[in-house]
Amino acid sequence: MSEYLVAATLFTYFLIQIEHKYLKAKWYKWLYAPFISSVIIEIILHLDTVFHLYDSDFALVVDYIKLTTVFGYNLFLIFWGRHLVKQSYTISKEKKRWLLKLNFFIICIIACWLLANIEIGFSESEYGADFLRILLSLLSWWILYYGVFKLQIIVQKDEIHHYLASKKGINTRTKRTINETTVSKIVMQLYALMDEEELFKDPFLSRSDLAIRLGTNESYLSQIINQETNKSVVQFVNEYRVKAAQDILHNPVFNKYSVDAIGMEAGFKSKSAFYKTFNSSLGMSPGTFRKLKKAS
Questions:
Q1: Which of 16, 188, 239, 294 has the most Cβ atoms closer than 10 angstroms to its Cβ?
Q2: Res 17: pLDDT
Q3: Contact 248, 160 (CB under 8 A)
Q4: Residue 35, phi then psi, degrees to nearest 5
Q5: What is the spatial distance between Cα 154 and Cα 178, in angstroms, rounded to a whole number?
Q6: How far apart are CA 214 and CA 222, in angstroms?
Q7: How far apart are CA 176 and CA 239, in angstroms?
């Protein structure tokens, strides 16, 4: 019976995360109709143990129909939820990426569930069921870590981003002073992209992306940045990220947010990359920097 609840509950979870309008649709509650129907059917079938109403063939047919509809219903809602997440524009890229990862893992679980049932039906082996239990354990750990911890960091990062965006027109980040006579046009454009569009906040920003935006090739871009700033492309971008993280850590408004969320907002792809780069630049961890600023 509960098998019909899995996809409906997860589908609801995806709708809540992307704040979809379907949550308010009149037909939404009908997603739980298969579960209610299965409960009624199970009750009727269990009467057979007392009154012997049905023959064994009828029960087998009902079980086969139930198994088929369970997998069909679960897969339909999971893939529908995946489609809605992909089409959503109300959430950040990081949150969308996380939801799609969760969705894919669930698809793997359902596939394993199906294979386990097929294996038991044909060979009466329980290896498939054992593998399913292991996979379910991994999923539980994954959801516990990423769903509770990682997603919370993403939510905090989004809050920081929205706050900074709302204050951008009032209190913009201090731009560095550039001597236009000593830098090339490409480097000037690069500084503009970083200061005005904050491209460094994209954790997946690559040398290729920058070269395309500046209308040049990767090799020349690396060469010109190294010649005029004495830095590699990665060092140049990370310098902006560290400065952005410093500004946020220095602002008491963001004291309630985790250091990890601040690093993500600054454009770092991972916690380890943030800590390593920050420590390399300032000789201390982000947490230590925040404590020093609070004490001063």
A1: 239
A2: 86
A3: yes
A4: -65, -45
A5: 34
A6: 12
A7: 12
Under CATH, what is the fold of the domain 173-295? Arc Repressor Mutant, subunit A (1.10.10)
* Amino acid (1-letter code) at residue 58: F
**What does the longest C-alpha to C-alpha distance in the chain come to?**
96
- Specify the amino acid at residue 20: H
**Rounded CA separation 89/95 (Å):** 11
Tokens matching residue 109: 């679980």
d(CA 156, CA 175): 26
Domain ranges (residues) in the chain? 3-165, 173-295
* Torsion sign across C-alpha atoms 111, 148, 11, 86: negative
Q: pLDDT by residue for the chain (296 residues), tens digit each?
A: 567 787 888 889 889 888 889 988 888 888 888 888 877 877 776 766 666 665 555 556 666 677 778 888 888 999 999 999 999 888 877 788 888 888 888 888 777 777 777 766 666 666 666 776 677 677 767 766 666 677 788 888 888 988 888 876 544 455 555 555 556 888 889 999 999 899 999 998 999 999 999 998 999 999 999 998 899 999 999 999 999 999 999 999 999 999 999 999 999 988 899 999 999 999 999 999 998 887 76
